[in-house]
Specification:
By secondary structure, the protein is of the alpha/beta class. It folds into two domains: 15-199 and 318-409, Zn peptidases (Aminopeptidase, 3-Layer(aba) Sandwich), CATH 3.40.630; 202-311, Alpha-Beta Plaits (2-Layer Sandwich). The chain has ten helices and 16 strands. The protein has helices at residues 20-26, 28-40, 49-59, 120-136, 158-164, 226-244, 282-302, 322-336, 354-358, 395-409; strands at residues 65-68, 75-80, 83-93, 142-150, 175-184, 192-194, 197-200, 202-211, 215-216, 251-260, 266-267, 270-279, 306-311, 318-320, 341-343, 363-369. Strands 1-2-4-3-5-16-6-15 form an eight-stranded mixed beta sheet, with helices on both faces. Strands 10-12-8-13 form a four-stranded antiparallel beta sheet, covered by helices on one side. α1 packs across α10 (395-409), α2 (28-40) runs antiparallel to α4 and α6 (226-244) runs antiparallel to α7. The protein is elongated. The relative contact order is 0.20.
Length: 411
């Protein structure tokens, strides 16, 4: 993609945004350098010391008040504007995935079995450059900007941990708006997409263990075979979705793993199902979390077996504030050009712990396209693939959007 200055729009003449994209583009060498440094040295989970150090170095000299996490490797930077006013929160998540990279990039991961396959390295780099842009425009800000560099998004509840450690208490006023950007290879480079209401699903992982009585495979009547019971549960759970949940409430139950037995002539004593539940409303989630163990227990009883059920806490539904999502869409159209901002027709069934922040602060998540040049987004390796790549030419679009969001909120 050739990076060009955004086209004009009804809001692009606003002096607050004058030269913003050009300034973000001027920072591109620094943005790319930080992104590639993090990409080569990815870290998983809640403790990301090298990433934390890189963020602290990037923020050094910007005049921010900086906090680091106590139980997690987070970084919070606070930029005070020239005049009092509200607080706005911007997030970039920092952690990588347990994946062996196979991209062939010259800056590929140097750590065996760990890869920035979800683009969090780009999130950190864009947010750090946005911090520099906004620090240079401190005199234009009436209020404060909180820069949230978050570890542990990939299943480690990092956002929730940061809230518990006082994320929302680092300024005198609670944040009034919040924004997180997420890069994606499945959208045209430089295009920003968001939507009002649910944008990502809740997620719960569950396990059902079925207990029977083992025996010889040639004489099943002397055993209580847990395998047919487990097999019946798989189909029954799909029926539960269609009979207990409204057709207007998207809900997914997937049994992704079934384990039982050791060889062909032994009826095992136990069988185990592992699956995931995804919903776009808390009511559907609560219904299914009650129905899954009930249905499985009753099917097991019909086969003379018993069950043991466990479920993780899981991330809630990520719900954008309608007004904030609309404002993000309008701002992106203003600073990036109307052809670089669109409304998502449907939510994604993936999950995000940004959902915890959006429970506390009116805000939004938006997706930034970064499909590599020469590829159709439909054919590009997706996030979480060991072959995924992102077009770095999209990064100034993210930097600009973060900065414009803060400038708009703190006018």
């Amino acid at each position: 993609m050739t990076t060009q200055a955004p086209a004009s729009s009804a809001l692009s003449g606003d002096p607050r945004f004058s030269g913003l994209f050009e300034a973000a583009r001027a920072l591109q060498p620094k943005t790319v350098a930080l992104r590639r440094q993090l990409h080569q040295h990815p870290e998983q989970g809640l403790e990301v010391p090298a990433t934390q150090a890189a963020v602290l170095h990037a923020l050094d000299g910007l005049g921010l008040r900086v906090h680091t996490g106590e139980a997690v490797g987070s970084v919070i930077g606070v930029l005070k504007g020239a005049r009092p006013g509200p607080t706005v929160l911007l997030r970039g998540d920092m952690d990588a995935l347990p994946l062996q990279e196979d991209t062939g990039l010259p800056f590929a991961s140097r750590l065996e079995g760990t890869m920035h396959a979800c683009g969090h390295d780009t999130h950190v780099a864009m947010l750090a450059s946005a911090a520099q842009l906004l620090a240079e425009r401190r005199e234009e800000l009436a209020g404060a900007v909180v820069f949230m560099f978050q570890p542990g998004e990939e299943g480690h509840y990092g956002a929730k941990r940061m809230l518990e450690e006082g994320l929302l208490d680092v300024t005198d006023r609670l944040p009034e708006r919040a924004l997180a950007l997420h890069i994606t290879s499945k959208e045209s480079s430089g295009v920003l997409r968001t939507r009002p209401g649910p944008i990502m699903a809740s997620a719960n992982s569950f396990t059902v263990k079925v207990f029977g009585r083992g025996g010889h495979a040639s004489n099943p009547s002397d055993a209580l075979d847990p395998v047919p019971a487990a097999a019946a549960m798989v189909g029954a759970l799909q029926t539960v979705v269609t009979r207990r949940i409204s057709v207007f409430e998207p809900t997914v139950v997937t049994i992704a793993r079934i384990t039982a037995g050791t060889t062909s002539n032994i009826i095992p004593e136990t069988a185990e199902l592992q699956g995931t539940l995804r919903t776009l409303s808390e009511s559907s989630r609560e219904t299914m979390l009650a129905e899954i163990p009930r249905v499985c227990a009753q099917i097991a009883a019909a086969h003379g077996c018993t069950t043991e059920y466990t479920v993780d806490e899981g991330y809630p539904v990520t719900i954008n504030d309608d007004d904030v999502a609309a404002r993000v869409h309008d701002l992106a159209g203003a600073v990036l050009g109307a052809n670089h901002s669109s409304v998502m027709p449907n939510p994604l069934m993936g999950a995000e712990d940004w959902s915890y922040v959006l429970r506390e602060v009116p805000g939004a998540m938006a997706f930034l396209g970064a499909c590599p040049p020469g590829l159709d987004p439909a054919d590009a390796p997706a996030n979480h693939s060991n072959k995924v790549q992102f077009d770095e030419a999209a990064l100034p679009h993210g930097v600009t959007t973060y900065a414009a969001f803060a400038l708009d909120a703190l006018r």
